[in-house]
Amino acid sequence: MNTRAAGRPYHHGSLPETLVAHAVELLDEGGAEAVTVREVARRAGVSPSAPFRHYPDRAALLAAVGEAVAMDFGAAQMAAVESADALPFRALGAAFVHYALAHPHRFALLRGGVFGAYRTPAMEEGHRVFVDGITELVVAGQRRGELRQGDAEMIRIAAQALVYGLSQMFVDNYLDASRADALINQVIDLFGLGVLAPDGEMREAAEGV
Questions:
Q1: Beta bridge partners of residue 196, listed in sequence order
Q2: How far is C-alpha 169 from the chain's CA centre?
Q3: Are 186 and 203 in contact (CB under 8 A)?
Q4: Which of 16, 50, 85, 86 could form a disulfide with 46 if both were Cys (CB 3.0 to 4.6 A apart)?
Q5: Interatomic CA distance for residues 134 and 131, integer angstroms
Q6: Nearest CA-CA partner of 98 in 116, 82, 77
Q7: What is the rounded (10 degree) CA torsion for 25, 28, 32, 38?
Q8: pLDDT value of residue 208
């Protein structure tokens, strides 16, 4: 996610974008607790009252930050899918966990804003589009004979539960992040043996590893 350098002047009309960018910087540095309207204003080089013209309170600013992070999170996974040589569904899952590892504070914010019970209208729409995209990946994999036939939504839920839980285990330091690459591949491959088509080439290759 691109962020502006602290103190750099903003162009007319772009203050909300600038405020969110600096808020994301603070989020990455110290978590949601570090995001304060005063510090965001200071980094943006504006008066302490200026942010309130766009965000009535800190909660509104954090909601905007959550929406920006959710877009970045989704874009990272879609980029992984588009660049995958094989099994884009697998690439999606790996990208999910790698994002949480790279941005643990963003993942913590997403945990409430995307995966929690309440979402802003913009977050709800983005989540719907993202979930539909994952389901479409499952269906496409089934059509190509890569994934076993079955309820695409249930496969999507099971896969998300796996990578969500794995991500949280890394973020909580329950699992050693220095072993992340190997563990991510091994866990996703183990799950994959359950959803790969029984007689497909992908399963034969995976079982032979």
A1: 147
A2: 15
A3: no
A4: 50
A5: 5
A6: 77
A7: -20
A8: 58
pLDDT confidence of residue 87: 83
Kindly give, in sequence order, each residue whose CB lies less than 8 Å from that of residue 168, ignoring residues fewer than 6 positions away: 100, 111
Count of Cβ atoms closer than 10 Å to residue 205 Cβ: 11
C-alpha distance from residue 72 to each of 76, 107, 127, 129 (Å): 6, 11, 12, 14
Write down the residue that tokens 């690459």 correspond to.
Answer: 181
- How confident is the chain (209 residues) per 10-residue block, as mean pLDDT? 46 81 97 95 94 92 92 92 87 94 94 74 85 91 89 92 94 93 90 75 61
- Whole-angstrom Cα distance, residue 174 to residue 156? 25
Structural contact between residues 159 and 93, judged by C-beta atoms closer than 8 angstroms: yes
